[in-house]
Give the backbone structure.
Amino acid sequence: MSELVLLDEAVGETRVCRFDEQGQPLELGIERCSEQMSRLVTGSAHLGRVIRVENNINAAFVELPIGDPGFLPFGRKGRPASVHEGAKIPVLVTREALPGKGPNLVLTSPQQVTAPAPTLTERMNLPETARIIPADRAGRERIDEAIEQALARQVAIPDGGDICIEQTRALVAIDVDTGNSPVTGGKFNHKAAQVIFRHLRLRSAGGIIVIDFAPMKSKNERNALWASITSLAKKDPARIDVLPLSRFGTMELLRRKNVRSPDDIMLDENGKKTVETVALEALRALENEALAQGGARLELQAGIAVFNWLQQDNIGWHAAMTKRIGPRFCLQCNNDLPRQKYEVIGK
């Protein structure tokens, strides 16, 4: 059975969700229209200008057409002759900008600069056997569920128990709890490890990750868990370095982060959905209702915060929605709704 990839090209936002052969969500990709003029994507090539050469770190910082300056490491061969302050050079984005970090770059050919940037599905490096299917209403609901999983603090383990995932400023802390599971010790930790590594990919988690496993009584259990973890790490497309299990039952990983996490895109600094996130959800709800009620007049009622974001229409959503469902909808402010709530009413 091949992997399934659902592609949701909605108004204002494209979402891609990759599911494994068991139907579990494995990876998420999210791209917003509002960021097209402020972010450069991985795999795109541009003409940049060297603004600073840092010999002490064997790298340079490069001004790009949009967004933060990029980081260009020189590698073992050292600084190329073409790279000096003020020089214009063709560069390829090898890792998109992350919170607090500009994009990573490599030198490329001038011809590459004119090539189109890869699409979201192309950037996800999907297997050739994957089935890419446009998401209908049911598919959108599956993607919604995958995103809710990716944003959830607590994750259930099959047959009992759970893991708690918390992102701190310094690291990702994961606590494993057997709860009411009939399975304990090494066997339970093995099941927990499988869930953990799926969620590391689903959440695009990176940096230092500390896992506090359930207690184990024997050395054989600990050795078996170590073997399981190292095997799972090799299957992850991101580079992962694993330290041995400590005598306290904790394990440290270092996972390279290549793309932004769903929470980087969708949540504010307090862990709440941004106004844009809710507004884009409202637009999907409007389109879904239009498909369900062919020909009906629709009214998108929104709280003041969502209404103001949509009313500004900085992404051209109104024209795009009209092209999809026709001019049979309107936007109304409903002061009885909370600021970041909405509802679609058919008339």
Remarks:
- Helices lie at 120-123, 137-151, 185-202, 219-235, 262-266, 275-292, 304-312, 317-325.
- The longest strand covers residues 45-54.
- Residues 4-35+121-145 form a domain with the Nucleotidyltransferase; domain 5 fold (CATH 3.30.420.300).
- The longest helix spans residues 185-202.
